[in-house]
Specification:
It is a single chain. The chain is built from 15 helices and twelve strands. The strands form three sheets. It has an eight-stranded mixed beta sheet with strand order 5-6-7-4-8-9-3-12, with helices on both faces. A two-stranded antiparallel sheet has the order 1-2. A two-stranded antiparallel sheet has the order 10-11. Strand 8, helix 14 and strand 9 form a beta-alpha-beta unit. Helix 11 crosses helix 12. The radius of gyration is 29 Å and the shape is elongated. The C terminus is likely disordered.
């Protein structure tokens, strides 16, 4: 393969004139290269074709991006009386990274950029970013004291670092009120992920449930994907957990993933890419989201059975469970045993097929006769006296608007 010709100093000067002053290719060539560039001459054609060469196209694209960034920085400095130092530092860091990775830049310039980067901390590692997550947890979660066995709202605990974050970021502190239910705490977080969306009557039972497992079935476009994404978001915000969204194929979970990523983008804007690391395996069609607080969400395809074994989970969300093979039920349960994980499945199946049928038709030992019998869904709730580890909720109301 023929090596690509390196860009010369004169060619850079020619390109800079075009980008910075708006000069034409021929006019810039006359000034820099001293070409006459008479009409229809070989020099005129050369000046026009020079812009199409790979080395010049790459250099000019980088130069144009640099001009845009410098313009943004100038606006940032001139459009406000109070300098936003965090934004300015973010710009400086990204600009130095650009120079460091620019193959056309002078070696000394790139070395200086590397030295400057060592002295300037990465804004993505700023403790302020993790405080964006802590702010959510403080508003919608509870803590438990292992000594006195008292459960309390986290916002009742004073945090000096969070108070500083609220003041600097001009964020309202959590309102001190008596949270009445798990639904209220969850809504403290969900209403910030998308203020325009509120749960309707048939979604509230699932969002209020204390049972270990939740099984739901309803008509198409009834809000099941939204509800599953809400539940996945609440679990994903818990530090250090591993959760799955399981579907027959990736496409069956696309709506849930789009909702979830939209919620996370809203909650952590404009730092989503700094807080959440996203990767997609095209071979297995599996998406992975990893957060700065150590939680990990994977979208698993039921067709890749080999990847479903060997992992311990805190929660599994099954999209379109009527189409997920029944034989995966035991595999999924095995992933839950040591961490007392939860299974939440919502879909629009035809009848009770697939893994949904196994959850709806759960069996257990009759306490009187000792025989193995089917336990109706209404008898598996906490209200019916079922222990939490064996409990499940199957809302009777269909999930429709």
């Amino acid at each position: 393969m023929r090596p690509q010709k390196r860009i010369t100093k004169k060619e850079k000067e020619w390109a800079d004139l075009i980008i910075e002053s708006g000069m034409g290719s021929i006019e810039a060539a006359r000034k820099v290269f001293k070409w006459k560039c008479e009409p229809r001459s070989s020099e005129s054609k050369r000046a026009i074709n020079l812009k199409k060469t790979p080395r010049l196209k790459a250099y000019m694209a980088q130069k144009e991006e640099s001009v845009v960034r410098e313009t943004e920085a100038h606006k940032l400095m001139m459009s406000t009386e109070v300098i936003e130092w965090d934004q300015l530092r973010k710009y400086a860091f990204e600009r130095l990274e650009f120079i460091r990775d620019d193959p056309t830049a002078n070696a000394r310039v790139r070395f200086n950029a590397i030295q400057a980067l060592k002295k300037l901390s990465d804004p993505s590692k700023d403790s302020g970013l993790i405080h964006m997550w802590l702010d959510l947890i403080w508003r919608g979660s509870q803590g438990h004291c292992p000594q006195c066995h008292t459960t309390f709202n986290l916002y009742e605990i004073e945090s000096k670092s969070l108070k500083k974050f609220w003041k600097v970021s001009e964020v309202d502190e959590p309102v001190e009120f008596e949270v009445e239910s798990v639904f209220d705490r969850r809504m403290e977080i969900l209403k910030r992920s998308d203020p325009r969306k509120t749960p309707h009557a048939s979604q509230i039972p699932a969002l209020s449930a204390l049972e270990r497992h939740i099984v739901g079935k309803g008509a198409a476009r009834g809000g099941k994907s939204l509800l599953l994404a809400w539940m996945a978001l609440l679990f994903f915000l818990i530090p250090g957990v591993e959760i799955w969204i399981l579907a027959r194929i990736y496409e069956d979970a696309r709506s849930e993933i789009e909702y979830l990523k939209k919620f996370l983008n809203t909650l952590f804007y404009p730092y989503y890419d700094k807080i959440i690391k996203e990767s997609f395996d095209s071979k297995t069609s599996e998406l992975t989201l990893v957060s700065k607080w150590g939680s990990e969400l994977r979208v698993r395809s039921a067709k890749s059975k080999g990847s479903i074994t060997g992992r311990e989970l805190e929660a599994a969300f099954v999209a379109e469970p009527g189409w997920v093979p029944e034989d995966l039920y035991e595999e999924l349960r095995a992933r839950m045993s040591s961490r007392l994980g939860r299974i939440i499945m919502l879909g629009t199946p035809k009848g009770y097929g697939g893994i949904l049928g196994r959850m709806m038709n759960a069996r257990g030992k009759d306490p009187v006769t000792g025989k193995i019998v089917r336990i109706p869904p209404e008898k598996r709730t906490l209200k019916a006296g079922t222990p939490w580890g064996q409990s499940s909720l199957a809302p009777r109301s269909s999930m429709t608007h």
